[in-house]
Structure formats: C-alpha cells, structure tokens
C-alpha cells in the first residue's frame, strides 16, 4: 500500500472552493508531489479567474485545514499514520501567498515568516547544529548519477575561493566519492583525542567514510547503522569555525537520505537535477522530501544541461532548461546550469577540482562561469534564508 497522486486528487476533490465547486473540478490543483510518508500540494484558488480576489488568510487557513484532514485520512487508508504535508497556496502567477506545513503529528501551521517574523523555522526536534558552523547546506538529488557529489564538491571549492571557510562532508556513505574527487588517496585519516581531523585539500576541509572503511568492501548498513555512522562523521569531526558546511547526501528519497537530512539542523538544501523529464520527477520528490521536513530548498542546479562541441556549437542533449522549468513550477530559486564538460569529469576523476575554475584547465570559459554564477546565487539565497525571508523564495540575481 502506498499513497499516490490519485489518492491525493480524490481527497482534494472532496474539498469545496468558496464558489461551491470542488478544488479539482475548478482546476485549482497546480501540483501534487508524493514520496512515501511525505506529500506536498500547490493550490491556486484564483486559477482561471485572475481578477477574482485571493481569499483572506483566515479563509485559506480553514481551507488548508480541510485539505490537511482529507489528505491525512487518505494516507491513513494506505496505512500511513503520520504524514509530512506541505500545502502551498499560490496566486495565478505561481507566487506563494501562503505556505502551510504539517508536522508528523498532523498540525498544519502557517509557515510564512513574512507575516510573523518570530515564527521559528520548523526543524526536527532531534536535529542539532554543529558548534562553530554558521550554515549547513545539504546537496540532494532524486537519484544517483546526476552529479550531486560533483556539485557538492564544486560548491565547496567555489565558496572557499570567495574567501569563506568551508567544510564538505561526504554523506553518501554507501558510495563515498570524495577520496577520488578531492584526491585524498595518499592522505591518512588523523584522529586526535577521539576527534576526526578533517582533510585540508584545495582550500576546503573534508571528511569521508571512504577514508574510514575498506574501499573494496560493500557497505551493507541498515538505516539506524547508516544514521549512526553519519552523525558520528558530523559530530566527531573537529571542523573548527566554518562559514559553510556542505553535506553531500546519499541519492534518492528513501529512508537513509531522509533520516540524514533530518538529523542535522540545515540552513537549507540544494537539489541537483538533469534536464530530462524522468530526472525532474525524481527531483520533485527530493524537493517534497525537504519541504515536508521543514527544510528550505535554497535552489535547483541543472547539471549536464547542454554540451558545447569543438566548434563552439551548443547541443541540448537532454533537453536544456527542463530543471529550470521545474524549479519555476515549484517556486524554487534556480541557481544555474552546468554544461556537460569532459574536463569536469577528468578533473573529478583526477582529484583536481580547482581546475574547474580556470578556463585553461576547464575546457574553456563556460564551466568556470557557470560554477561562479551558481556559487553567487547560493550565497544570496543563504543570506535570504538567514534573514527569515526564505519561504517566499524570491530569486536574487547577483551580477
Ligand atoms: P552522483 O553524486 O549524483 O551520483 P557524481 O557527481 O558522482 O554523481 O557524477 C557522476 C559522474 O558524472 C562522475 O564521473 C562525474 O565526473 C560525471 N559528471 C557529473 N557532472 C558532469 C558534467 N556536467 N559533465 C561531465 N561529467 C559530469
């Protein structure tokens, strides 16, 4: 048994719009994302009637409560007792006018800090920060192979190149790639008085399970063991003072990435996606996972966006712009697009990530320019999230 979009559509068709029609017949349902015990819906009350006034906030809250109750009972019928639920009310241009987040106990709360600057960011009660670390950012993806680790490493290097102190944690504990990507193979893991000392390479501190276990052995860890290993990596590492700690999460939206995203107090998350429709569907699920945990999605990166041939011609192999459109649809900031680039792959395999920032070793200007733009956008979104303005997600362009 599993909760599906169809179950949620049925539930929404039992919710009445002030016009007397139900939400589904009136065309108010703009998007439904569902992943295991997490769901998010986007509702436009004025869809098809742009001149009609938005309902008052009180009225939206009441409609939200009915939506919540209908979806929760649909979830219960599927054996899901505690559902993480996000209800976004948007205007006909897609701007969020009200965001309601239901915690696992089923209390739907207005989480729009624009109206209440004192509203705390919803966080899992078990989540902890890391002493001395200002911002913790998770990098997630709906599935493997889309370039999540590549983006995590390059974000870290890019932020460090701008003068920030940065750490990067290989949370992909089943398939750690940092020893290769950061060229850590010849280095030894140092432990001082029980504390793991992060590696210092390319201007960033890093830690990876790949240096603590036998690289040849499969890591067959069940959820709680994976969780334990991950929290030890975070808590037992002597990070020192950091402006940013970037966490490369395991791929997907299963139990492990979900628990890991929940176990540390995040400033927000970056979702990496390739342009194809199938990849977008996975990224929507990843985004729904973060949202239902109360984690702000700071933005979407479109990786493998296009390919630049020798003659300088650009080829949209996977359908350039797909992830950007998805980001717009979900009202997430779009941080930028990274082209398919052979130098990026060889620099990663060769443990030389800083080469991606120099046109001479990055196959031209396109890659360094793309990475720098993404880093600038991320900095801006972190700043906005820290100011408590994140849930309306305006996109800043920094030039
Ligand atoms: P994930 O963490 O999502 O599994 P990785 O970051 O490990 O994915 O990337 C998978 C492979 O694709 C790696 O070999 C990486 O170097 C390569 N890769 C990622 N992004 C690009 C890109 N834009 N151009 C060329 N190769 C890429």
Give me the secondary-structure topology:
Layout: H1 5-12, E1 29-35, E2 38-44, H2 57-77, E3 84-90, E4 96-102, E5 108-110, E6 133-141, H3 148-161, E7 166-170, H4 178-181, E8 190-192, E9 195-197, E10 199-201, E11 204-208, H5 223-235, E12 242-248, H6 255-263, E13 268-273, H7 277-292, E14 297-308, E15 314-315, H8 322-329, E16 334-340, H9 342-349, H10 366-386
Parallel strand pairs: 2-3, 6-12, 6-13, 7-11, 7-12, 13-14, 14-16
Antiparallel strand pairs: 1-2, 3-4, 4-5, 8-9, 10-11, 14-15
Helix pairs in contact: 1-2, 3-10, 5-6
Bound molecules: adenosine-5'-diphosphate.
Adenosine-5'-diphosphate is lined by residues 141, 144-150, 177, 251, 303-304, 338, 340-341, 344-345, 348.
Produce a short descriptive summary.
The protein has 399 residues and is of the alpha/beta class. Helix content is 31%, strand content 23%. The longest helix is centred in the N-terminal third of the chain and has 21 residues, at 57-77.
């Amino acid at each position: 048994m599993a909760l599906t979009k169809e179950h949620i559509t049925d539930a929404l068709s039992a919710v009445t719009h002030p016009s007397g029609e139900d939400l589904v017949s009136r065309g108010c349902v703009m998007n439904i994302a569902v992943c295991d015990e997490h769901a998010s819906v986007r509702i436009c009350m004025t869809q098809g009637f742009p001149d009609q006034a938005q309902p008052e906030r009180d009225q939206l809250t009441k409609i939200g409560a009915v939506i919540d109750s209908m979806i929760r009972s649909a979830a219960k019928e599927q054996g899901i007792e505690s559902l993480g639920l996000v209800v976004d009310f948007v205007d006909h241009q897609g701007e969020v006018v009200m965001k309601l987040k239901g915690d696992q106990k089923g209390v739907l709360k207005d989480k729009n800090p624009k109206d209440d600057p004192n509203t705390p960011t919803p966080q899992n009660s078990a989540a902890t920060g890391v002493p001395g670390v200002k911002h913790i950012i998770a990098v997630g993806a709906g599935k493997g192979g889309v370039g999540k680790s590549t983006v995590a490493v390059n974000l870290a290097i890019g932020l460090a190149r701008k003068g920030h102190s940065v750490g990067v944690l290989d949370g992909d504990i089943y398939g750690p790639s940092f020893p290769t990507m950061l060229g850590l193979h010849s280095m030894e893991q140092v432990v001082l008085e029980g504390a793991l000392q992060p590696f210092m390479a390319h201007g960033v501190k890093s830690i990876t399970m790949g240096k603590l276990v036998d690289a040849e052995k499969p890591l067959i860890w069940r959820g709680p063991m994976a969780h334990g290993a991950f929290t030890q990596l975070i808590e037992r590492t002597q990070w020192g003072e950091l402006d940013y700690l970037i966490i490369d999460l395991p791929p997907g939206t299963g139990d492990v990435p979900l628990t890991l995203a929940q176990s540390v107090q995040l400033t927000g998350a970056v979702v990496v996606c390739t342009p194809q429709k199938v990849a977008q569907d996975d990224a929507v699920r990843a985004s729904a996972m973060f949202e239902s945990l109360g984690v702000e999605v700071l933005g979407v990166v479109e990786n493998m966006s296009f390919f630049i041939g020798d003659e300088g011609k650009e080829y949209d192999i996977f359908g350039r712009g797909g992830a950007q459109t998805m980001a717009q649809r979900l009202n997430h900031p779009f941080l930028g697009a990274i082209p398919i680039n052979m130098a990026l792959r060889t620099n990663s395999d060769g443990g030389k990530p800083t080469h991606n920032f120099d046109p001479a070793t990055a196959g031209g200007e396109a890659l360094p320019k793309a990475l720098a733009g993404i880093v600038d956008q991320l900095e801006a979104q972190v700043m906005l999230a820290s100011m408590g303005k994140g849930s309306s997600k305006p996109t800043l362009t920094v030039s």
